[in-house]
Amino acid sequence: MSRRSLRQLHRIAQWEVSRGVGVIDRKTAAVGVILLLLTGGVVGGVVMSGAGGVAIDRDIYRVGVDTENPYYPVVAQSSQLSAHPPDHEALARGDQDVIIEAFDDQFISWQTTGTEKGDAAHAALLSEIDRYNERQMASEPNQTAAYPVLVDIQYLTRFVDTPEALAAAQADDTSTSDRDLEGDTDSGSDRDTGAETNGEQPDSGAETSGGTDTASGPPPAIGTGVFGGEQSGSPATIQPPFPFSSLLLAFVFLIPLNFVIQAYGSTILNERINRRGELLLVAPVSRRTIIAGKTLPYFTAGMGVCGIIAVAVGGGLQSIAGVLPIVLAFLSATFVGGMLARSFKELTFVTVTISVFITTYVFVPAIFTNVTPIALISPLTIVVMDLQGQSATMGELLFSTVPFVVGSVVLFALGAGIYREEDMFTQKSIPDKFLDALNAQLSGYRSVALWTALFVPFVFVAELLAIAVLFVAPIELSIPILLITIAAIEEIAKSIHIYAGYQRARFDRALPVALGLGIASGAAFFVAEKFTAIAQVVGLPELALGQAAFAPVGLTPTLTIGLLLAPLALHVVTAMITAIGARDRRLVYGSALFIATLVHALYNYVVVTFYA
Amino acid sequence: MIRVDELQKSYGDFAAVVGSSFSVDAGEIFGIVGPNGAGKTTTLKMISGLIEPSGGSATVAGFDASDPEMRQSLGFLPEESPLYEDMTPRSYLRFFADLYDVPREEAIARTEATLDRLELEYRDRRLGDMSKGMKRKVAIARSLVNDPAVLIYDEPASGLDPLTTNTVLAFTRELKAAGKTVIFSAHNLYHVESICDRLIIMNEGQIIANGSISDLRDEYGTREYQIWATHCPTDLDPAETIDSGDSSSYLYIADTLEDADLLREKITRAGGDILDFRTEESTLESIFLELTGKPMAGSRTIGGSK
């Protein structure tokens, strides 16, 4: 980019900022800031006080208890219970729910009103007593005395009973490929060396928690603290490794992005309303510079806010690295949405769809951060790991972020293709404009091959999403559905731009041309798909579902070569089928797509059956 | 200054512009007229590099229309020029001056001078709060921020009140006087007739006439000389007679000035008086109607010259 272009980019970005600031008057801005601060304060309060920190049931039960009574501190420290001097008349009137009385410090009397509220108050009191006891034990200087029995907990990966998985399990029943458990199986040695620090009382020399907690975080008793809470307790308090607090904090990164994309989408659509952007197009500024200049302030705002959040919640560069592709994905999808929408009403629908889809896509897998590597399909998992104190390997980072970054670049390129006079001011439906956007990128066989390859990150994301969605389904059901879904996704990716080219009269409808386009697309897809081998960096193909989606491993060289060339033939043949159908109207293309998907799914089935 | 060769634009099976060729000399005001959908705006946008031609070429000030460098020499005023309404005229013009790499001092001096000439007083008011005429003046000023050699004005006076229209037309003449080359498209044929040196008429994507107004009249129009007299020589047949009781008026028509002089002589010699002598020429509108068979949107009838 030349110095002049940079200067222009800066000027457009500066203008975009001043416009963004200018459209909101000072009073509105002040109200907005106050609302934001209040919201932030509430969210921060919830987070910093633990999930249960805001007690809407504060002091709902009145307990009659003397200050000398040993149960007084239990009541006094409870948010639900309020302590009052015991008064039997008040109990009879219902003004007190429970009375606790001590006689000679030996005998404790409990009395409730006998009503439903009295029973509930009694139950609440019992729970508070348990919690009080836990706190007392946790604060005991001599932890060995407090917890004379230690239990190490190891959360193991759920093995799918494929031959390989079973063989691997038999070969080394103590090892695990689950990255979450790395370092978790060495609790014994940790205890010996005293290296374990979770909840450890240095002077006691006793270990209060298993090594499991080192990598996957402490047993996540909900509401016990921002980063995991207590490391010890009675067996009843031990819960599965659900990273609630980290997830909650990771979700905070997504909230401001929803506001940023609203403003960004509006500014893009604003250029298209009444041909407002025409004058920028006729100025000596390239499309790329205009788009970059208009996007830069929103990217900076998104990253800036996420950076502040990262600092506030204790995240580091890893969190920023995880958030960056999410910001890019939000902006790029919104940019395309802004270029396709015909009105602000339609844009609202588009941005809400984008917001829901991306939030779901990044948030749901992150829930399984401590359970399965599939969680790494979401860059938010990298953030969750960071907030849990886990470092992501370079492979994990690339696996999580590269598809998002490449996908975002492709989306920006698609939108930029129609950022021109001929396309940006037309009032076409979103599917029609989408075809325009694809068509704008095409020129010949090479461009078809290039765009097929560029679709592979989306194929990757869609397939991983399908895997994640089908993860919980029985394998007998999930594998066939997955085979068909993956076949359909790949056939669409190989043919949709060819269809767009034909619909916009870009290509000659002669059969040899269609076959040539199919060959170019199929071969390009094959080559690009092999780059998905990056998935193996994190061992995803070790899952049976992953094997269905990607190249199987562990075969003889001959079979490997055969299985290498077979998909090439498959992709080329099915792409030719769809390219022939794409020459005609939508129904014919749909039929060709259906046939190609069936052929592809059948091939997948044969390969999986053979391999199994 | 501008050369257009076999310019074509197709959208699928629809041909918006079919093989247009013309050239515009430096310092000329060149008009483009035609009915709606004739391909005028598409042609202008291809010349300005906004639309990629399907065929042919256009060069402006020696640069191909697709060359980004060409835009430094061009000032384009589209038919609709919605502005960024949250900006003021000053901030708007300086923003564009920056994009054109115009030094700040020079930009300020130039835009202020243009706004002075266009009599735009409110320069720090939000554009959204301004009238259509004021906004049009700002748009015209924007087309000049880079001091371009070539200006393309698509319907510059469309929808403006007569006062503002006159200001715009006068300003366009001043631009010509300052040596600028202007392509001027308008539906109002009177405007075109009054300021353009040459013009083309487009219809259904094609140029159907090209030349000066006079050339077009000669080629496609008519001119006649009308004489109203009080006396009817016996050897002449009047084209029309108006009998008002005690007196009559007779209309005689000659195709050439020489014939008209002969007629006048005959009438005078026969004792008649010449009541009126006028030249009736085809207007641009009548030529336009003759050629296209369609009335011009927003056109008006032009009276004959006396």
Short description:
The complex is a heterodimer of chains A (about 600) and B (about 300). Chain A is about 65% helix and about 5% strand.
Query: In what range is the share of β-strand residues of chain B?
Result: 25-35%
Specify the number of helices of chain B: 9
Q: In CATH's first tier, which class of the largest domain in chain B applies?
A: Alpha Beta
Cross-sheet strand order for the largest sheet of chain A: 2-1-3-4
Largest sheet of chain B: 6 strands, mixed
User: How many beta strands in the DSSP annotation of chain A?
Assistant: 4
In CATH, the homologous superfamily of the largest domain in chain B goes by the name P-loop containing nucleotide triphosphate hydrolases
Order of helices and strands of chain A: HHEHEHEEHHHHHHHHHHHHHHHHHHHH
Mean of the pLDDT scores of chain B?
86
List the chains of the largest interface with their residue counts.
Answer: A-B, 27 and 30 residues
**Percent of residues in beta strands of chain A:** under 5%
Biggest beta sheet attributes of chain A:
4 strands, mixed
Terminus-to-terminus distance of chain A: 52 Å
Compute the average pLDDT of chain A. Answer: 78
Structural class of chain B: alpha/beta
Poorly predicted sequence stretches spanning 5 or more consecutive residues of chain B = 298-306
Specify the structural class of chain A: mainly alpha
User: In angstroms, what is the radius of gyration of chain B?
Assistant: 24 Å
Strand tally of chain B: 14
Count of discrete structural domains of chain B: 2
Distance between the termini of chain B: 36 Å
Biased composition (Polar residues) (chain A): 195-215
Transmembrane segments (chain A): 29-56, 244-265, 296-314, 320-340, 347-377, 397-419, 448-473, 479-502, 514-539, 559-580, 587-606
GO molecular function, one term (chain A): metallopeptidase activity
Keywords (chain A): Hydrolase, Membrane, Metalloprotease, Protease, Transmembrane, Transmembrane helix
